[in-house]
Amino acid sequence: xxxxxxxxxxxxxxxxxxxxxxxxxxxxxxxxxxxxxxxxxxxxxxxxxxxxxxxxxxxxxxxxxxxxxxxxxxxxxxxxxxxxxxxxxxxxxxxxxxxxxxxxxxxxxxxxxxxxxxxxxxxxxxxxxxxxxxxxxxxxxxxxxxxxxxxxxxxxxxxxxxxxxxxxxxxxxxxxxxxxxxxxxxxxxxxxxxxxxxxxxx
Length: 202
What we know:
Main location: cytoplasm
Function: Plays a role as an inducible effector molecule that mediates Fas resistance produced by surface Ig engagement in B cells.
Number of helices: 3
GO cellular component, one term: cytoplasm
Shape: elongated
Keywords: Apoptosis, Cytoplasm
Strand order of the largest sheet: 13-14-15-16-17
Helix content: 10-25%
Protein name: Fas apoptotic inhibitory molecule 1
Distance between the termini: 48 Å
Strand content: over 45%
Order of helices and strands: HHEEEEEEEEHEEEEEEEEE
């Protein structure tokens, strides 16, 4: 059985635990947004009595408004290394119910992600015990790995192009080959240390 000393919790500990709980009671929405530099978590607190609005991006407070007389409206901020524009819309549904929608670059999150899957390829792999997330932006041919834009070197090969870069001491390249079909366009494949990495679906 535990002795009394082990069970006592200081008043400060209780207060800090409680204030954290109190802080999160107005949390009304959480979104995860996959961008080239990583997956970002957006949290939104909305106090429907005080009108308080707080936006956190990856746990960091971006916007805080304590007293808002207008309970509906929008909050705009940026996300990630490329400072992607994000907007949270607050709409009244009925009575005291509210709906929160997230827009990225002016598109609904769903539309943005659908469009993104057409304009980017993502691969997730583990090298020497470390997880890596590699993203190719097809329009610019920029390659991102774990939040950093990579130095790349492109070269033409017999059946297409190769974009070379390295991750740690691993040599990597993304091969772009025409599918021969107009609908499919170009097929991009990530090769790491001479093995093909399957594409991740986000």
